[in-house]
Amino acid sequence: MARPYPRERSNAWFLERWPYRVFVLRELSALFLALYMGVLLVLAARVHEGSSAFRDYVDALQSPLYLAFHAVALLFALLHSVTWFQAVPKGLPLRRGEQRVAPALLIGANYVAMLALTVLVLVVVLS
Amino acid sequence: MTQAPSDATTIRLEIARYRPEQDERPVLERYDVPYRHEWVVLDALNYLKDHIDGTLSYRWSCRMGICGSCGMMVNGVPKLTCSAFLRDYLPGPIRVEPMANFPVERDLVTVLDDFMEKFQAVKPWIIRDGEQPLEEGEYRQTPAQLADFKQFSMCINCMLCYAACPVYQHEDEFLGPAVLALAQRYNHDSRDQGKGERQELIWSDEGIWDCTFVGECSAVCPKHVDPAGAIQQAKVESTVGWYRSFLAPFGRG
Amino acid sequence: MRRSNEPLFWSLFSAGGVVTALLVPALILVTGFLVPAERVEFGRLEAILSHPVGRLALFGVASLTFIHAAHRLRHVLVDMGLRRFRGPIAVAAYLAAIGGAAWAATVAFA
Question: What are phi and psi of B198, to 5 degrees?
Fold first, then answer.
């Protein structure tokens, strides 16, 4: 009687093809979001402590290490935003009668909202 | 738009052979077959079997992307070999292996028992509390009601999505993409009343909640069923149901 | 078959996913680059963070981000091969998120 060869499992499947690599990077974006949120909370705590504590932390934020971290965090945050918006029409297949609302419309609406919120944040902080 | 015919005359295939009576594990064997601009990988396999080595085992039937039997890994990607043109893999070699994530019966033939069991577990048929009498006519459906599930009904059970799913690779209990999309197909059918019967299994940890939305199932699907989307939608529905069960604890389960 | 409690975590994860996708790039732009470039005045930051809306927003965004991250990392660690430890990983991840949310509360409502 023939004996089947058992199915193979790879411990490194997430390195084997580009779609899987992008998936893992997408998921790891959460690590950078959490780390960044930690930095933001420290900054907020320094602001509450007063202007000299804030000044010290601004000095720290000017170091290449912090700037590099924020650059990487920004890239991961953008990866998260792009992939998240891409996924929205998958979970919410809006329909108008027989016609499905074009996924591009839903995705586009998310980009518009992100842009509007970005402008709002900049106006509140800078003006 | 296809490329101009290439001047290649042969192309090399690297084929995973597994002959249980002699091989401990699958081994790659190399064959040179004629290259034809209009040939697909399945044509090359058929040539190989007819002219070079008649012992090669693989499944195929319709040659037109309908039957769903000829799924294999082509250069590591799940493909229907009847739709994978040699010209897209020039200059070769082309590595052909059995579908990943399934046990191998022989050569390019996989064992499908696990899929078949899970397939039946979601009750993929229309369930009615009671049939309406014949004289009341057929169960009618509006075009909008049809559109609600039609995409999920296009599945041909080729199982490429299982070969693409790393969660299925590692999690024995996971129902997997095609089966969950099929459950969604019946749950969204206006003529069906079996949602409650399917829910317990679908909404469990072995159902949709093992899925982490890698999304490759939808990328490799030859019929654009979008199982990843089906599962995401089921997650939304399950979540709504979960919260609703707290608001109305005595409602229907 | 046990009914999954995943909807609770998944809905919080999704809420956090939406909020972070819409907001975090802008926040990083401000605190990671404009603040070190000294383009943001201390007084303005202090006013924002002392305003009730600012406090609520900071707490909301931070705690949702922590829950989002905990849920995602919990699952990706399992996917990446730590399937045997899925129970402890889940507990550790959500405890960390709760700790993070508590920290966010003390900072935001200080």
Answer: -85, -30
Residue A117 burial (C-beta neighbours within 10 Å; 0-12, 13-18, 19+)? middle
Q: Which domains does chain B have, with CATH numbers?
A: 10-110 (3.10.20.30), 113-247 (1.10.1060.10)
Residues of A whose CB is below 8 A from C17 = 80, 84
List CB contacts (< 8 A) between C22 and chain A.
81, 110, 113-114, 117
CB contacts of B214 in chain C (<8 Å) are: 79
Residues with Cβ within 8 Å of A85's Cβ and at least 6 positions away in sequence, in order, are A107, A110, A111, A114, C21
For B20-40, what is the mean pLDDT? 96
Phi, psi of B72, deg, nearest 5: -150, 170
Residue C35 to residue C29: CA distance in whole angstroms? 9
Predicted confidence at residue B249, as pLDDT, reads 61
| Domains and their CATH numbers in chain A | 16-126 (1.20.1300.10)
C-alpha span between B163 and B98 (Å, rounded): 9
CA gap B165, B214 in Å, rounded: 8
- Which residues of chain C lie closer than 8 angstroms to A73, CB-CB? 28, 32
pLDDT at B85 over 60: yes
Q: Which of A97-101, B75-79, B138-142 has the lowest mean pLDDT?
A: A97-101
pLDDT in tens, B167-194: 999 999 999 999 999 999 999 999 999 9
Nearest CB neighbour to C6, from listed B200, B201, B205: B205
Q: Is A9 on the interface with B (CB under 8 A)?
A: yes
Whose tokens are 């995973």? That residue is: B16
* Neighbours, chain A (3 or more CB pairs < 8 A): B, C
Interface check A62 vs C, CB under 8 A: yes
Counting Cα atoms < 13 Å in the Cβ hemisphere of C73 gives: 23
Q: Is residue C78 part of a domain?
A: yes
Interface test with B, best of A14, A22, A90, A92 (most B CBs within 10 A): A90
pLDDT in tens, B40-56: 999 999 999 999 999 99
Distances B116 to B81, B119, B121, B179, B233 between C-alpha atoms, Å? 22, 5, 9, 9, 24
Name chain B contacts of A86, Cβ cutoff 8 Å: none
Residue B1: per-residue pLDDT: 47
* A1 pLDDT above the threshold of 90: no
Confidence category of residue B245, pLDDT binned at 50, 70, 90 = confident
Domains held by chain C: number: 1
Cβ–Cβ contact B241 with C under 8 A: yes
Contact C28 A77 (CB under 8 A): yes
Question: Cβ of B229 and A90 within 8 Å?
Answer: yes
